[in-house]
Amino acid sequence: MNDPLMPPPLTDDCFALPAGTHWTPVAEAHAMLEDRLAVVVGTKTVALDAALDRVLAQDVIARRANPPEANSAVDGYGVRHAGTKDGPQTMALMTGRSAAGAPFEGVLAAGQAVRILTGATIPEGVDTVILQEGVTTDGAQVAFHGPLKKGANLRQAGEDVEAGDVILTEGRRVTPADMALAAATGVSDLQVRNRLRVAVLSTGDELAQPGEDARAGQIYDANRPMLLAMINRFGFEAVDAGRAPDDRAELKRMMDRAAETSDLILTSGGASAGDEDHLSALLNESGAMTLWRLAIKPGRPLALGMWRGKPVFGLPGNPVAAMVCTLIFARPAMGALAGEGWRLPEPMMVPANFTKSKKPGRREYLRARLRDGKAEAFASEGSGRISGLSWAEGLVALPDDACEIAPGTDVAFYSYAAFGL
Length: 421
Ligand code: AMP
Ligand code: MG
Description:
Elements: H1 26-36, E1 43-47, E2 60-61, E3 71-72, E4 76-79, E5 87-98, E6 112-116, E7 128-131, E8 136-137, E9 141-146, E10 154-155, E11 166-168, H2 176-184, E12 189-193, E13 197-203, E14 207-208, E15 219-220, H3 223-234, E16 237-244, H4 248-261, E17 264-268, H5 278-285, E18 289-292, E19 296-297, E20 302-307, E21 310-315, H6 319-338, E22 348-351, E23 356-358, E24 363-371, E25 374-377, H7 386-391, E26 394-398, E27 403-405, E28 410-415
Parallel strand pairs: 5-6, 13-16, 13-17, 14-15, 17-21, 19-24
Antiparallel strand pairs: 1-12, 2-11, 3-10, 4-6, 4-7, 5-9, 8-9, 18-20, 20-21, 22-28, 23-27, 24-25, 24-26, 26-28
The structure holds adenosine monophosphate (AMP) and magnesium ion (MG).
């Protein structure tokens, strides 16, 4: 079932920058992406048990209250509060009981008690439940101490959720707890977005496939397995678009195929303006590319364009820069395209466990991890150090302005998990 009303597709000039733009601050790049990107995937209905991690296409409404009827929060005895008094007292115990799924059919009068178990519907006439530990019984009578608190040990109908309440909102990614909430309130299927398909294409004559012998001058393609895995973790559908040589015609053919099988194309390498930067040359030829020079370290220009109607994120080839640019720019963009809306992760402010003097002019991302509540930074900032990406468990973002970090200075830490990894 496809959404009958789809917004217009992205236009070829959707990534154009205002004239004179030089180094674009991260916040401005975010604002432009947020402004220009919109959902590109349709909707369908899925059964609740297939809804984990799917993006909701509409608000979910409770069909039933939780709890649907008043029930007992404990094992004990139900009474009518009006028939109780202060001090020790006895009451007649009714024959029968109310158990979860097997309610007591009768009506209780003041001065009577009825056995009631956890989760059982409250019988008519009962407004208070006495905990069984506070009661003695011989099977015909119960004895207990007053005073009782009226309404004690009862869960009221709808005290959690009322029928008709919005329980989950459009754009939310369904969690295991959401599935419990939907099930409890009588929702058995959900309108979700089709999964965003994200193609990953590596470029460069120097790349060899892991597992193959690498010739002199070759390196293994590290970006493709990383990016495909990131997309999977984000909950999108990763499409392996392969490895393109530095050959314009072959790259074009592979880009055509990627565009046919995906909603978004992530490429790495070849995005600058060098002789062998075929990706930017190709996108430029089609008239739909802008090189976004981002005021960010690590990261070189990001080539943003459209290919056969599909947005293209031309990531830097360097794996560290490719990962940082994916987390900082491509991840929120994917959310917008996938129907989650534009969202940025929340940082955790934690004391640094390192020293750093930073110049003004660009935002800097350090490979970092938390130990004993403090942020440690990877010893080398060398952007070729893939081992630092693996060592890290997140990023520390240092502000665009100059700053001096000493041990104990608060810094903004974003765990990989905060990005959805
Ligand atoms: P480029 O942007 O094509 O100039 O590449 C920048 C650097 O990243 C070069 O050192 C490339 O060899 C390297 N590189 C490009 N693509 C990959 C990849 N898929 N895996 C590992 N390194 C890469
Ligand atoms: Mg290259």
